[in-house]
Design a protein that fits this description.
By secondary structure, this protein is an alpha+beta fold. The protein has four helices and six strands.
Length: about 120
């Protein structure tokens, strides 16, 4: 398993650890001129859950792979947090923001993988 796949798996586990919902992995590798190869998108039900998921992803990934994010954006209001791992950007949304920005449709050419909720 290559580094990117391991990273995707650990980000997903970090999301699931804090009950993040509607996880979708968008594979952008076949699309030209993208900022990364994968998006992993999920939502939390409140700003505090968005923050908890963000922290969980950071800790999980660092513990399991030693990798730290290049940047984290959106922590101030915690409605949409983006965590940049270069090849992968994790997006943690509140449901309303996720519906509004609709990244899955914005990148309609991406191969989407839906991860079933754990509970």
């Amino acid at each position: 398993m290559n580094e990117t796949k391991v990273l995707l798996e650990k980000i997903k586990e970090g999301i699931q650890e804090k009950k993040g919902k509607n996880i979708v992995i968008a594979d952008l590798t076949d699309i030209e001129d993208t900022i990364c190869n994968y998006f992993i998108i999920c939502n939390g039900n409140s700003p505090s859950q968005v923050m908890a998921i963000t922290d969980s992803i950071k800790e999980y990934v660092r513990e399991k792979t030693g990798v730290k994010p290049f940047a984290i954006d959106g922590l101030k209001n915690a409605q949409w947090v983006a965590i940049d791992y270069s090849d992968i950007i994790a997006h943690i949304f509140l449901p309303e923001q996720r519906d509004f920005y609709n990244l899955e449709h914005l990148w309609a050419d991406a191969k989407l993988t839906r991860i079933p909720d754990l509970d």
